[in-house]
Amino acid sequence: MPKKPAAAAQASAASAAPVAAQKDSQQVEEGEDQEAQQKGFKGQATKDMQNVSGYFDERVGDKVDEGKIGKAMTFLTDVSKKQKAQKSARDKELAKVVLTKEDVELIMNEFQIGKGTAERALRESKGDVLETLRRLIAA
Amino acid sequence: MPPAKQGRELPSKESAMFKSILKFYEHKQYKKGLKQAEQILRKFPEHGETLAMKGLFLSHLDRKEEGYEFVKKGLRNDLTSHTCWHVYGLMHRADKNYEEAIKCYVNALKFDKENMQIIRDLSLLQIQMRNYEGFNETRHQLLSLRPTNRMYWVGLAISYHMLQKYDTALNVLSAFEESLKEQPDVADFENSEMLMYKNMIIEESGDNLKALEHLEDIRTRVVDKRSWRESKARVLLKANKLTEAEVEYRQLLDQNPDCHAYLEGLLRARSLIGGSADLDVTQMEKLFRLLNELGNKYPRSHVIKRAPLKYAKADKFRELADEYLRPMFRKGVPSLFVSIKDLYKDDGKGQIVEDLVLGYRKSLKEAQRFGEDDALTEREPPTAYLWVLYFLAQHYDHKRNTTTALQLINEALVHTPTLVELLMTKARIYKHAGDEETAVTIMNEAREMDLQDRYINSKCTKYMLRNDRLGEAEQTIALFTRSESLDPLADLVDMQCMWFATECAKSYVRQEQYGRALKKLHQIEQHFVDIYDDQFDFHSYCLRKMTLRSYVELLRVEDKLRSHPFYFEAATLAVQVYLELHDKPKEHSGREDASNANVSDSERKKAERKARKLALKTQNDKAADAGSNKDKADVNGEKYLAADDYLEEAMRFLRPLLDLGSERIESQVLGCEVFLRKKKYLLALRALKKGTAIAPNHPDLHRNAVRFYLAVKSEPIDSIHPHVRTVLEEEMGQLFNGVKDAKEFNAKYLKNCKGNVESLLAAAEMDRLCGGDGVEILEEIVTGETRDLTLETAVKVHMSLVTTFSDLKKADDFELKCRERFPLAGYFEPTD
């Protein structure tokens, strides 16, 4: 009889570990849920997966200078505000383009894309359908 | 009667209990949590948050449907509770219904704007969905709530990195570093990783000098010394500081002389590879001197030993190859041919190797030496002769010179009948010659020589599948699946074993059992879905553990997951199957019934057995949910055959091909085929254009181009939108170079065929489609030289002669010729 390679099964079990671990814990009838002892490789895999997917306690903050942090935060808020302003300016520019429903539907239908993508493509070509079609073909 | 509406506030005892419920959930103690929740509900049966939590516990204890009921009930009872919305979001998340989960989280945040847990969960969903803008916003929020924790600074930096706003990302990291009161410990891995991550961002921003400067800055604080040096070497090379790069690469090579990347870096630093022009004589001289020097310094490095063969030409190659091959044969390295085969792309080199090894064979046979002039050296071991024969057999097989290859391998087998490799090669030769049946018989012999060898067991399984012997294949592969699993085939699915599924699917396609084939192919698609989903847990884990560079790499791998060759193979096959189904749906459903009736007894019994086993399992396994079991029971894949629109189904596989495999001609060809049938002419045209850029003379692309031309021209004038027609005509003018009709286009293509049989066949078929008969072209194929013909092409030509042209006379003539050319091929065997 050929020997069944246990090691190989183990190695690949790593990816299936969360599933296996769950099933095992269900089989333990007494309510000890996760305290159920698992030995060897499987137990280790379960533990590792818990480390990956479990909740964790918030670690205490690093030793930082509150004043400096405050400054850094203000700076970041500015950055984020500026970005939003920029973005909305760009969006406004694009939003100015007037689109017709037929054009949008034509683009959606011909290129099998969603409404949002179709509208954006049209807006970027300033509403010119032919131009949009050409650009999408070259894309 | 309890009051119709209860407040959210619980008395202090229950309130404490509820808090512990939340703890139980965090620690995954679901049964305890459930008990506790039920206890509260005994007193307050309508308490919304507790109901929701109970539902959550139930769903984790595999009572999902019940769970959903409780969660929904809880939510109804307390619509303004962030906990209830959060729980509902968690349920959706567990079902991978991420869009819905995001909506729930957003609702939850309406009622508790600063709940860290919820904001954090939301950010995980956003990165999983690659909503970088939203992710960035959420990360800003998180940081403003916990500005002293570095994890949140890094999280924000990642969000800017993903938006390719490198400067801001760097500013975020610097702002945090500067606010630290004291410099962290030298040996702090997390800090070191953060610094290296920062360097990664600088490097990707393209500012090489800044990256170098930064590397020097952080040098003492980085613990991952090797990757620090790798970065330095790489960036120096990019910054064109070659002398310094050379120093670094030499040091790296000293640490690992068997690393291809290091050697390549060194050669680049010396401007010896990677340039646009070929090397001149002096540069070549330099290259070999350098490699020689390295070879002497690191005599055990195979990478360095093998490198010169790639660059040397003609006589120099002969000299170096001779030096390289002899010790390999002396030692008996079974993988020698495989490791050298890529040199054969250069025609001359294959011939030189052949001459050399034939020379060895002669002198080994006569004098047990590699060369006649080596009289002074010791005699070579007798195995050297064996390995030379083995090598030559593979060499001739590679050239598809079957007769010689078989002679050689048989001689080797006489020499040593028990060497598994020899039998495997013999089987492979038969396979290449088109005799799959003999191939599997021999491969099985090889398998029986070493029953403990998983590799050969798998090989043998594959050969069985190639012969459509599925039952045998399943039994064979089952010898190596996990012993404890009831159903070995299900075990293969669990292990995400894809080659087996692909080969099964191919076999089903050959047998025209398309439902079964699609089932296997969808299974592979599911593996890729799972692999993508598996990344979810790492969004929080990697941030916590600060494994930032690997995390970013992971995100990038997942983005391109479906560019994997396994996916490519499965997806192209799936699209082909759907096209086949679309083209003849009626005819096919009849066939499926017939093929079911023809299924052999053993096959049917096995299916019944499997169904019984499954039924048993369902009884035993209360946990199994109804949906997935129904799926498993559908052995014939009826579900897939019952689809309304095969072309739409094909799109699921086609999209990743076009997005991630757009540089492969097969993707564009299939894309064009699907879009043509859907009458999406612009998309078809786009595929044609891209295909033309990849391989302008590809026969399948040409077939598509002609069909496209005819289809567009035959559309009634008002069935194509005027805008679309305008653009189509513009583009077609370019693509078809102003030909007056499809026939002329085909004639032009024919001129470019240059005797290539596949192209000629395409031209002949298209000539017929344009109203011609293709006879002249066919005549050229059938009477032409068969020396360069491959078996695959020959089969294609023959099939086309029979089915497309119904020219049995030519088919018979061609078959006779092919029987001579491919004496072992099963396809051309006389049928009587």
From TrEMBL, chain A:
Coiled coil spans: none
InterPro entries listed in its UniProt record: Huntingtin-int_K, HYPK_UBA, NAC-like_UBA
Single GO BP term: protein stabilization
Biased composition (Low complexity): 1-22
Xref: Pfam families: UBA_HYPK (PF19026)
Region (Disordered): 1-48
Annotated ranges, domain Nascent polypeptide-associated complex subunit alpha-like UBA: 97-137
Protein name: Nascent polypeptide-associated complex subunit alpha-like UBA domain-containing protein
UniProtKB/TrEMBL annotation, chain B:
Per-repeat ranges for TPR: 82-115
Domain of life: Eukaryota
Compositional bias (Basic and acidic residues): 619-632
Protein's UniProt keywords contain ATP-binding: no
PROSITE patterns: TPR (PS50005)
Pfam families in alphabetical order: NatA_aux_su (PF12569), TPR_8 (PF13181)
SMART domains according to UniProt: TPR (SM00028)
Keyword Repeat (UniProt): yes
Alphabetized Gene3D superfamilies for the sequence: 1.25.40.1010, 1.25.40.1040
Keyword list, A-Z: Repeat, TPR repeat
Family annotation (InterPro entries): NatA_aux_su, TPR-like_helical_dom_sf, TPR_rpt
Record protein name field: N-alpha-acetyltransferase 15, NatA auxiliary subunit
Organism annotation: Spizellomyces punctatus (strain DAOM BR117)
